[in-house]
Amino acid sequence: MNFSLTPSQLEIQTRARQFAREEVAPLARQADETGVFPLHLVKRMGELGFLAGTIDPAYGGSGMDYLSYTLISEELGWADSSVRGFLAVHGSLVSLCINDWGTEAQKQRYLPRLASGEMIGCYCLTEPNAGSDAASLETTATPDGDGYVLNGEKIWITNGGLAHLAIVFATLDRAKRHKGICAFLVETASPGFIRQPMPGKELGHRAADHAHIRFENLRVPKSALLGAEGEGFKVAMSALDHGRLGVAAGAVGVAQACLDACVDFARTRRQFGKRIGDFQMIQAVIADMAAEIEAARMLVYKAAWMKEQGLPTTRQTSMAKLYATEIAVKAASEAVLLHGGRGYSSQYPVERHYRDIKGLQIYEGTSHIQRIVIARDVIGKES
Ligand code: CAA
After folding, report:
1. What is the pLDDT of residues 176-212, one digit of tens each?
2. Active site residue 104
3. The domain that contains 330 carries what CATH number?
4. CB of 85 sitting under 6 A from ligand 1
5. pTM score > 0.85 for this model?
């Protein structure tokens, strides 16, 4: 067992940290307040090789290992969850999914453009009546000549208003539950692809783009199928295995940002004639935070390592997402409290982390769903 990063992993971590701290973090507060995603960062992430990290260079990717890709998510999570969330959807749910399931023609058509940022991707699974129970989705795919016609609606689609390409999940026959679902690659300029921003104001991720999308008699050719007919649910779940790892790494980044802010504050803020970091109650909070972050990071890195070995990672990824998001929620809450009145103001980033982190606990499968995935794997099927 070797816990050291390789020279190449260290180089990517350094590059990602520099980008996150110098180019992403300074924009985070303004992006949060205006609700406008800093779109120029997409092209920058393309130039830096982050958008399609593990994808083969033959398709425009950087060919890095999964741990390196995870390190990028951690660094971006430290700076801004809206930007890290963009990458989880674009890079993992979309690009890695096409990489796993796409035909040669689909890979050649889309992966290089997704890698450079020329195209933006979104992943259309969630519906008004199908959130955690993804197999109950209602969007229909009706065979028609040499293609299909899609009708239905999706909600909470991250990058949905910006995307050029959508992976859309639709059913041929609802009675078949997951066995009736197909995945389609849909170009968002297609007639019948209708999108608008989600109503209301989100608690966090305020710079992220979240759309409500409708498909009205949207025609796709047979060549738009991603995977075989009826394989769409597996396509969706395998994409989530990639995406959840990025969310878990992002949560470690958020928790680390909270710890760093607390350490700075504990060293400089003086009350009762000494640094607040010299009080044992503050020390206990910081010690727990540091220990929990270290444990979460190890779960995340192990899942990335297992992915690299080609091992099944569903259980490990869900454990990483569950634990990392839960401890990050706790870290953000403690960080706000430790900063007192300052933690309650947008002048200090912990206020934004406290709002953002609830999103990580919900999207790409809530903590309840991660527990279901883990428990089913631990207990196993009845023989
Ligand atoms: N990889 C590949 N195949 C998988 C799989 C995986 N990780 N997980 C399950 N499958 C397969 C199973 O093997 C099974 O196949 P067979 O029929 O051949 O046996 C099939 O899929 C059905 O599996 P289940 O019986 O476990 O299905 P289920 O209906 O009980 O659901 C669930 C399981 C884990 C609860 C699933 O519905 C789930 O993950 N729900 C949460 C959905 C979710 O995360 N939504 C987030 C959307 S994306 C987002 O939030 C971000 C955004 O912006 C787009």
Report:
1. 999 999 999 999 999 999 999 999 999 999 999 999 9
2. no
3. 1.20.140.10
4. no
5. yes
